[in-house]
Design a protein that fits this description.
It is a single chain. Helices cover 54% and strands 6% of the residues. It is built from 20 helices and nine strands. By secondary structure, it is mostly helical. The protein has two domains: 4-199, Orthogonal Bundle (Fumarase C, Chain B, domain 1), CATH 1.10.275; 206-312 and 324-501, Fumarase/aspartase (Central domain) (Fumarase C, Chain A, domain 2, Up-down Bundle).
């Protein structure tokens, strides 16, 4: 196994990113990337030698101050002032895993040779990544339009020797960490501050983190839903391929196929049924889970395009001898993808809670609230309440953020995406779906016990065996909070092959 991932023009895909994260790979620039970075920087330096014409963000002010010309001797001060003045984030800290993805995607975007960044600046970002020196970044402050200005300013502060970082589990002034590694603060050159702050890496990092998690939760929704179907004494006929070939949405076909495979060999699913139909939350899993899969596919395409792009401004095109100010920092594609993903994942939680409700309702020979001696024992009454509460919260979080906009920078930035707000909402929502599925799994495992001696499929029984090592059968009432947390931990600990997740 190669301990390094080579930063190059090769497209970053989900399998590669999952490998970088799970295998804790370090980063290294390819020779081609180094050439492109140096060539672009040299072009910009030469361009500025005889340049009196204003070039936005390079020898001018920023935003509404674009018409203010900056003298050559003040270009470094301009860039450092930009980083310091824009570090206005507040709220909760961005999780370390997402900060690390921000570093990865910022490095990738700057490596294409269209940003004018110094090689040593990118190398320092790589030093941060490789040594787990993670800048403190805050969740609030980005409008998702002029790039993720405030979050990326906090990401960049340590480059110039300012701000705090997390290192070995402790929050420290970056100056202390610099001393440990013998690093000197970077003296930012023309355009560098803007190259660092313009970009969508806050949104992109949240997006990829949640895409990876959503693929996993989509798989687990099929698995846990299959367990619930078997526990409910459900029918297999609605999952017959013929039903789905006449309405061939890709996600629908994939879900039906996966559920058939999960239940293959189950004694429960194959036994004769007294009932003709199952409730929609069971029968329509291919249609509902499948629609979420198709949405995840759309969102995945959007975020994969974004992380393999140049998103700062202005863009430098050496061959064409042009420096063009545009709007690649605008987060509208990401904002819409987040909002669509939020709605789709909320539905995955919504239908899961409905299956939990059916399992505790005393139907199909199952005891009410899935416990012996109901009345004396409340059993699984309240876990369903908890799931319902989370589902309701998700409906609120799923409200689109992208339909909003607000004027900023004295009217210069008069339409913004609100993609950063969509990102943090999506983070809470997707984590909530994980909790809802963990509660359904807790209920399904309990319900399957009451179907003994009949067994589910070999695959499901093997999952249950591992699950029972941490979450035992509930005979009498106990503190179920602990069981729910253990069920969440179980879901988080499951490692699913990329081939299964990203097919």
């Amino acid at each position: 196994m190669n301990p390094y991932h080579i930063i190059s023009s090769k497209v970053l895909d989900l399998t590669t990113i999952k490998g970088i994260v799970s295998e804790q790979k370090k980063l290294q620039l390819s020779e081609d990337a180094i050439i492109k970075i140096n060539k672009c920087r040299a072009y910009l330096d030469n361009k500025l030698k005889g340049q009196n014409k204003p070039i936005y963000g390079i020898n001018t002010g920023f935003g509404a101050l674009y018409n203010v010309k900056i003298s050559k001797e003040n270009l470094t001060i301009l860039q450092e002032n930009l980083v310091m003045s824009h570090a206005c984030g507040t709220g909760d800290r961005v999780p370390n895993d997402i900060v690390k993805l921000m570093l990865l995607f910022k490095i990738q975007s700057l490596s294409y040779g269209h940003s004018g960044i110094q090689l040593k600046t990118i190398e320092r970002l790589i030093d941060f990544y490789n040594n787990d020196v993670l800048p403190i970044v805050y969740t609030q402050g980005s409008l998702g339009a002029s790039g993720d200005l405030a979050p990326l300013a906090h990401l960049s502060l340590p480059l110039i020797g300012k701000g705090n970082v997390v290192f070995k589990g402790k929050e420290l002034p970056v100056s202390e960490v610099q001393h440990l590694f013998g690093w000197q603060p970077i003296s930012l050159q023309s355009k560098e501050g803007l190259a660092l702050l313009n970009g969508t890496q806050f949104m992109s990092a949240y997006g990829i983190y949640l895409i990876l998690k959503s693929h996993k939760l989509s798989y687990l929704a099929d698995l846990v839903g299959s367990m619930s179907l078997d526990a409910f004494d459900g029918r297999i006929e609605p999952f017959n391929e013929l039903v789905h070939l006449v309405r061939p949405h890709n996600g629908q076909l994939e879900t039906a196929k996966r559920i058939r495979e999960f239940l293959d060999g189950s004694e429960l699913i194959s036994q004769p049924k007294k009932h003709v139909q199952d409730p929609y939350s069971f029968r329509c899993m291919p249609q509902v889970h499948g629609a979420t899969k198709d949405t995840i596919t759309f969102a995945t395409k959007t975020f994969m395009t974004e992380i393999n792009s140049v998103t700062d401004n202005p863009n430098i095109f050496i061959e064409e001898d042009k420096i063009i100010s545009g709007g690649n920092f605008h987060g509208q594609p990401l904002a819409l993808a987040f909002d669509y993903l939020k709605i789709a994942m909320a539905e995955l939680g919504n239908i899961s809670e409905r299956r939990t409700f059916q399992l505790v309702s005393g139907l199909r020979g199952l005891p009410v609230f899935l416990v012996n001696n109901p009345g004396l024992n409340s059993g699984f009454m309240i876990p369903q309440y908890t799931a319902a509460s989370i589902v309701s919260a998700n409906k609120q979080l799923a409200t689109p953020a992208s339909v909003d906009s607000i004027v900023s920078s004295n009217g210069q930035e008069d339409h913004v995406s609100m993609g950063a707000n969509a990102a943090t909402q999506a983070y809470m929502l997707v984590n909530n779906v994980e909790r809802i599925l963990a509660i359904e799994l807790f209920n399904a495992s309990q319900a399957l016990f009451f179907r003994a001696p009949l067994k589910s499929s070999e695959f499901i029984e093997s999952i249950l065996k591992i699950y029972r090592e941490d979450i035992s059968f509930v005979t009498d009432d106990r503190v179920l909070h602990d069981d729910i947390n253990n069920s969440i931990d179980f879901i988080q600990s499951l490692d699913i092959d990329s081939e299964e997740l990203f097919q």
